[in-house]
User: Fold this.
Amino acid sequence: MTITTLSSQEFSQDALKALGTTVNGPVFITDCGAATHVLLSFQSYQELLAQRSNIAVLLGALQTADIEFDPPRLDIQLRKADFR
Assistant:
């Protein structure tokens, strides 16, 4: 997979070239040097969607991850409201 970068000006001058380039991989379109858009082939887009996980799958993956997390316990005490 090859990532191609085009300026927004290059993209607007030759959009067909950019479309053809998506066969090799994504095309990053930049504005003032910063990436602002990504152009993908429809097949690449479908593959990307197939990789999506939902929150339940992601949380299930945490069980096997080597993550230590011990949050401090909060000591919350109730007190009477002062309406003065």
